[in-house]
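Q: Could you fold this chain for me?
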Amino acid sequence: MMKIASYNIHKAVGTDRRRSPERIIEVLNEIDADVIALQEADMRFGQRHAVLPDWLLEARSPYRRVPLAIQSGSMGWHGNAILVREGVEVTGHDVLHLPCLEPRGAVNAAVSANGVALRLFGMHLDLSGLWRRRQAAALLHQVEVANSHGAPLPTVLVGDTNEWTQNGGCLRDFARQFTILSCGRSFHARRPVASLDRIMYSAGLTLNEAGVHSSPLARRASDHLPVWAVLEAG
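A: Sure. Below is the predicted structure, expressed as structure tokens.
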């Protein structure tokens, strides 16, 4: 089995308005996933430095980042990053441009651990419903491209969809090819009212369990709660 998680870390600024990368790493350790997709993992302006520098991850966690960064000092691509636990094999990775009004992107990595091999896409979709649907179409196309140009792998899509409806908008588009999990309400962390953060999986994978990580620390560390799922091959 492989545990997958997604977490919008809000640049490590918590609901108490304090910026604390160390606190985010403590939450990552609580989640205890094999692979974690992050959103808002780089600063937004200037040189867009990583919110969680490599030395801090190495000192305080079993995680390392997949080397997606295009810009020196950044952790990922348009704030999207992927972390893997020690022992997880990364066999490929890439970044994607998404159609947008403001800069948006997605990232992917092919990973294997515990007898499970899959391709994971991490995303942070637009606030506009029209652009979210265009971005969903682009992501679904990239899934097809990845599986046609490399070894076909079961695929997991994770991230902050910014979709407030339960089954409409971009979720309807994703549902044509993916099973969308009901992990639970993840936003706002203090009083969750919306399931903005999603995990979706393709054929070739089976769900074991899923949920929202709602520890006292997670409710303070970011304005989103992490979501997670345990998947197995088959």
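A (continued): The CA atoms of residues 90 and 102 lie 30 Å apart.
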